[in-house]
Amino acid sequence: MSADFTSTTAPHSQAPGTEAQAMPGGNAIVFDNVSMTFPDGTEGLKDVDLAIAPGEFVSIVGPSGCGKSTLLKVASGLVTHTGGKVWVDRDQLGYTFQDATLLPWRKVQDNVELLMELRGFPPAERARIAREKIDLVGLTGFENHYPQRLSGGMKMRVSLARSLALNPAVFMFDEPFGALDEITRERLNDEVIDLYQREQFTGIFVTHSIPEAVYMSSKVVVMSARPGRIQEVFDVPFAYPRRPEMRYQADFSELCGEVSLSLRRAIEG
User: Fold this and answer.
1) What is the pLDDT of residues 135-158, one digit of tens each?
2) Could you give the angle at the alpha carbon of 149 between the alpha carbons of 127 and 143, nearest 5°?
3) Where do the structural domains in the chain lie, given as residue ranges?
4) CA 208 to CA 210: how far, in whole Å?
5) What CATH homologous superfamily does 1-89+169-269 map to?
6) What is the rounded CA–CA span in Å between residue 220 and residue 197?
7) CB crowding 8-23: b at 16 or more within 10 Å, else e
């Protein structure tokens, strides 16, 4: 399947006048005036303009129901937007959902091999790659465990390994750590940052946590209440790698406060 760089009406087909184009401005992802109206008439997104450069890690925060997850689903082709254009190479895209979405009857090794199996990778190649990614997320020794024997954090690591197996250039995270305890969540924040630096993908991370967004990202995007629009964009000035003690620094708290104030304005309309 060839790379799908643009769509306006369907994720893997083109409407008249929407021929494939080069990525605008050399960006990894571009949303150009994107809107999404659901069949019942509800506006999920309206006039979203956002460009994400290669290698950026962008977190998206906003009120519940503002369209954060919808924006990711539009970019990935899981849902079809009703207006505007999206540029992204879906052949090199990884996606981690709010739930680990593991198949309970498959062991860790087999779950990590799943996407490669669906894409027709030879058995020996997918087994080798799966072992590499299992080691990368710190689960060596758990290859033969079933999901029910894993903690929540370990399940999310399996989900990450499964997506990393395809070496995505763009990795989308749809609030993957929301159901985890704070200590596990912070540990996985650090592990994702480490993976981001090693694998050098472009990241989009949806979260309800402002400190998490600021800690992980090079840029934080605040969305308005429904219909979701881009309210404000904050550049995060802290260098990678991030250190846990950064969360207690005055400049970190100050930036979290600015993002929080923007979010409050978004909620209040």
Assistant:
1) 999 999 999 999 999 999 999 999
2) 15
3) 1-89+169-269, 98-168
4) 6
5) P-loop containing nucleotide triphosphate hydrolases (3.40.50.300)
6) 18
7) beebeeeeeeeeeeeb
CA distances from 69 to 90, 119, 129, 194, 196 (A): 17, 25, 29, 24, 20
The tokens for 181 are 């305890």
Whole-angstrom distance, CA of residue 26 vs CA of residue 3: 16
Please give the structure tokens belonging to residue 15. Answer: 């409407």
Decide if 112 contacts 158 (C-beta within 8 A).
yes
Residue with tokens 């946590």: 209
> What angle is formed at CA 156 by the lines to CA 153 and CA 157, rounded to 5 degrees?
90
pLDDT at 61 over 70: yes
**Beta strand residue intervals within 11-82, DSSP E:** 29-37, 43-52, 57-61
